[in-house]
Amino acid sequence: MADDIILQTQDLVKEFLGFVAVNRVNLKVRRGQIHALIGPNGAGKTTVFNLLTKFLIPTQGTILFNGQDITSKKPAEVAHRGLVRSFQISATFPNLTVLENVRIGLQGATGLSLHFWRSERVLSQLNDRAMALLEEVGLESFADTQAVELAYGRKRALEIATTLAMNPELMLLDEPTQGMGHEDVDRVTQLIKKVSANRTVLMVEHNMSVVSRIADTISVLQRGQIIAEGPYATVSQNPQVLEAYMGTVETELEGAHA
User: Fold this and answer.
1) DSSP string, 16-35
2) What one-character DSSP code corresponds to residue 140?
């Protein structure tokens, strides 16, 4: 049903000086799902993300969010509508505490983001909500720690908390487990699964083990086009997908549940 689709693209195209990076992508993200966008290096995954969040302007095509055309909207506008992204590189304020980082996200959601002259008393009213978000991502005991002192996996958890502070209806995660060891990968994977309970998640992810464990639907990009889509069991057996990865994914897909 149309009401089940929270985000949709129609013949989305992006060209750079004649090079077609995204070629007529028709994507449908269903409400309440974790939808993974995968593909080999250079497939166009991050370009699609940048188009969806308005950091790039499409050459052609339409982007619909909750049935509304957002193709010409600016990044701040789509964020306030509830489409919020994280970035491939952890984007926190290193010299602020964990609590202060989340509180800045809450200020953005409540319209106080530019009111830096607000008294500590006014801003402290956001502390209860900030602490609840930190508890949700398992960082409540690090509230007074400077972000720079956090281990890498916990920095990504903090980034997810600040993204949640914007009250996203659709959360876009760009390579959330990149550069992590197994322990951090497991922690962040469980966290994504937990926070997706009342939201929709669209994620770019290279780790097939992560994708196989939590994604409801997978879209596979190659040379800017979607070549396969469906649940993991279907996509992992698709010959085009295995060929696109030149055998590298075949081993990963076979061993993802090992």
Assistant:
1) ETTEEEEEEE--EEETT-EE
2) G
Query: Residue 48 sits in a domain of what CATH number?
Result: 3.40.50.300
Going by C-beta distance under 8 Å and a sequence separation of 6 or more, which residues neighbour residue 126? 103, 106, 107, 110
Q: Which of 235, 229, 238 is closest to 27 using CA atoms? A: 229
The answer to whether residues 33 and 219 touch, using CB atoms and an 8 Å cutoff, is no
Number of folded domains in the chain?
A: 2
How would you write the pLDDT of the chain (258 residues) with one tens digit per residue? 567 999 999 999 999 998 999 999 999 999 999 999 998 888 999 899 999 988 999 999 999 999 999 999 998 899 889 998 876 445 678 899 999 999 888 876 665 554 554 556 666 678 889 999 999 999 999 999 999 999 988 988 999 998 888 888 999 998 888 888 888 899 899 999 998 988 899 999 888 889 999 999 999 999 999 999 999 999 988 888 888 775 554 445 555 554
104 with 210, same domain? no
Strand order in the sheet with 170-174: 83-85, 170-174, 200-204, 34-38, 217-222, 225-230
Query: Residues 43, 223: contact at Cβ < 8 Å?
Result: yes
Q: CA separation (Å) from 118 to 86, 105, 127, 146, 171?
A: 27, 15, 14, 22, 29
Question: Which residue segment(s) compose the domain that 121 sits in?
Answer: 92-167
> Tokens standing for 81?
């509508």
Q: With beta carbons less than 8 A apart as the criterion, state whether 77 and 243 touch.
A: no
- Looking at the structure, do residues 178 and 256 belong to the same domain, yes or no? yes
Contact present, 3 and 14 (Cβ < 8 Å): no
Domain membership flag for residue 87: no
- The whole model's pTM is what? 0.86
Whether residue 145 is contained in a domain is answered as yes
